[in-house]
Amino acid sequence: MNWYLFRLGRACITILLLLILAFFALAASGDPAQILLGPDTSQAAIDAFREKWGLTLPLWQQFLIYLNGLLHMNFGLSYRTGESALALVLDRIPVTLSLVLPTILLSIALGVPLGILSAMHRGRFIDRLAITLSVVGLSVPSFLLGVLAMYLFSVKLGWLAPSGYVDWSSYIMPVATLSTVGIGTYARFTRSAMVEVMSRPMIETARASGLSEGIIHRVHALPNALTPLITITALEFGHFVTYAAVVENVFGWQGTGSLLIESVSARDFAVVQAIMIITGVTMILANLLADLSYGFIDPRIADLRHRSARRLRTVCES
Amino acid sequence: MNQSRLKAKSLVLIVILSAGVAALSGNTPVFARDLTIAVPKNPDNLDPATENSNPNLRVVLSLYDTLVRFDYRNDGKIVPGLATEWKALDPKTLEFKLRPGVVFHNGDTFDANDVIATFSDVRLGRDKSVPTESEEFLGGIERIKAVDNMTVRIHIKAVDPIALDRFATFPAQIISETALKQARSYNDFTKLDAGSGPYALVSHEIGGATVLKKFDAYWGEAQAAADKVTFVTVPELSTRVAGLLSGQFDMITEIGTDEFLQIEGNPNGAVAGGPIETLRGVIFDSIDSPIADPRIRHAMNLAVDRRALVKGLYDGRTDVPRGWQVKTFGDMYLQDRPMDAYDPQKARELLKEASYDGKEIVWRTQHNYYTKQGETAQIVQSMWKAVGLNVKLEFKENWTQVLADTPDRAIIDASSGAYYPDPIGQFWRRLGPGGSFTKQKFFTVSADMAALGEELSTSVDTGHRRAVFAQMLDKFDEDPHSANFYTAAHFIGVRKDRLTYRALPTEYLDLTTTGVSFR
């Protein structure tokens, strides 16, 4: 329990630091009034905007007001629209999730088997091909891949609508574009984990006991290689949200990623902060879930945690 | 049994594959008179007084009317709008006879109260808790009075030669008084359709699509051309182009010359548009920078080959301006004035005369706030380098960084729209003592220039005003606080198998029957 409370406390401090850094970095690099109203606007309009949104107050005071609002679950209003920042973000989350969740599933569904296949044929042609494909998937920028896919499937072949949601086929290009990174990542990590497990003495023992290679891989190697994959999934969730910003922009999807880009360039503080808090909390929860699941998947980890806690109690009592 | 199961499975597979292929090959059916327009951004607010932006201008002409209008296709002449007649009762009073039988989209009938609500204090920026952009344009209104239900009298504070023009465009679009009164707050009002234009609002999703439909009760001769218009937000230019060429969109805005070849090379693609009433150039910091000497700034102006810029960057599809003016100035356009000269030899001589010693001159620019901004900066920098000027480009992220008044500030990019087809609406608005650049300490306006500006702003004698304007431009050439490079242009990609589009020389989109013709 103490371990989880420690993790939670650390997560809260991380979010607070994130907020402070983001607020002051954004404020220091641009005045929302000037950026939003543009260069061809009168000083009177700029002054009125600053007055209305409290931008004439010292920065530390603006931050404290914001923080106070946050403690009362008030995320503030968007400078651009006057709407609740939280409502604007929540409105966009389903769009991003509708891209990110299929991407994670597709990445696991293709990346893990590719990694296993690669590990099973270590050093051979299939392995080299799989590694090359993974590196290509990881290296090609999402926006480039997106634009190329659009040129081929929309302009040349006329199969898919390039922008926004038209029907289910609209998911194909953005999800495929996002997944190339995920497939590459999963394939590489699965391969490494499998290769590491396959070199353990227990695999030699299994072979010596006459088990087939298929059973050895499925029953002995894969479950042991799963733990690092859970860590990767938790981390990849955050990465996918980041990549989604680029992909949403390229394919004209109105998700949190494109909202973040708009809001950062407009210095719409409340919206940027709301996205950061929600993304931060999601990342922390994803990592907590991953931590929790280790214990279920690998009883040795649960046992280790129990023993550490017992040792701590003993030290405290003595 | 096994065989029949196999057959059943095959059948299911065929059905699924067929459905997939059908879904892949067919996008949503396109109705003959529906229009889908991809724009980089939709407006955050629909109230013209609140948002002065290109996204807003794309939509407002369809939603709102003004008392009078500029006929952009007829030298910008003023024609009736929601007012059928008007007259100046004295130099400071305008009287408008209002058009009977006009209905707003909310069902309200148009009368004098709507005009009074449009120019009420809250919409003129006089209520400081409601920031609007009106004060600069309509701040001269002193009071407004209803003579009767269909006649209004507007009193202005000082004689203003463009007083009537101010009621023809942004932000003087007429709103429904009922809409303003019924809105819970002004912020709520900014999201409403309070207009009487050829299209009514169906939905406005912030950051998403804005959907309009034909307003059947519209009073005007030029009716809505489409039954439904959907403005889709597509920030990425390559996606807009792909959407146009694949048939997802009928029109796309904000295309660059790099896309001309791809669009015009497609049998269904065409490019509409051209120069608009905006000048693109730079503003000089003439007060405390290495270019404080007017001879250096004059040399900078002489060193720019504007024709080469227009040809290289715009494929020759925009203009080199004749000084600080655009063609829609009408009677105030000085047709005989030469284009800004390109004379590198004279530029070198002036620099020598000014004893310019190669001191670094910082030009703060951005990559893509304006079309071709980065490219323009790099080409002009090389033109300046060719005459011996040491100009350093600094790419900034936003306007706060560009405008910061630090000792290294010397040149910044600028775009100057002619809100009114008159030097007061462009040249003097930007470079006069009331302009933002003066307030941001880029330059000071000399006493004799200020006196000429006063004459330009208060005289109603066109001949005299023309002479004064010419004098001002001559003076400006000797001590320039800016350099204009070319007339900005707005290009629109069009699906020519579906429609033809006649663009206006402004940022407005004309989606009525005078602008759009379906095939």
UniProtKB/TrEMBL annotation, chain A:
Which coarse location class applies to the principal site listed for this UniProt protein?
A: membrane
Fetch the InterPro entries from UniProt.
BPD_transp_1_N, MetI-like, MetI-like_sf
Q: Where is the ABC transmembrane type-1 domain positioned along the sequence? A: 93-290
Keyword list, A-Z: Cell membrane, Membrane, Transmembrane, Transmembrane helix, Transport
TM stretches of this protein: 95-117, 129-151, 171-189, 269-290
Regarding the membrane, this protein is recorded as:
Multi-pass membrane protein
Q: Which PANTHER family match?
A: DIPEPTIDE TRANSPORT SYSTEM PERMEASE PROTEIN DPPB-RELATED
Protein name in UniProt? ABC transporter permease
TrEMBL record, chain B:
- Coiled-coil spans are none
Tell me the leader sequence span: 1-32
Which top-rank group of organisms is this from? Bacteria
Q: Which InterPro entries match?
A: SBP_5 (IPR039424), SBP_5_dom (IPR000914)
Q: Which SUPFAM superfamilies would you find in this protein's record? A: Periplasmic binding protein-like II (SSF53850)
Alphabetized, the UniProt keywords read: Signal
Subcellular localization, per the record? Periplasm
The Solute-binding protein family domain extends over 77-435
Q: Which family does it belong to?
A: Belongs to the bacterial solute-binding protein 5 family.
Q: What is this protein called?
A: Oligopeptide ABC transporter substrate-binding protein
